[in-house]
Amino acid sequence: MASHPIVQAGENVTRQVLADHPDLMVVAFGFEAKGAEGALHNHPHVQSTFVESGRFRFSMDGDTFEVGPGDSFVIPSNAVHGCVCLEPGRLVDCFTPRRDDFL
Prior knowledge:
Layout: E1 7-10, E2 13-21, E3 24-31, E4 37-41, E5 46-60, E6 63-67, E7 72-75, E8 81-96
């Protein structure tokens, strides 16, 4: 059960922590409009991303690929990555260890 608030993570992007433990965190990102962006960034956490809905163009360490509902992939520690929303939707990300900056 999610008890964490929904927060703005960018223009037309929301974030909500769904579950957390020091070793693992599950976070939902809502992309409300075509063109909304998850800016390029990196972090020491290993991340898995599951596309619940929508379509997205991802960039990861210079490679670009598109994903849609049901797709999933892993982002290694410190890989530079980001995305652009092609169709509004929701991504569910898992991080290990937990992203304390999201709490």
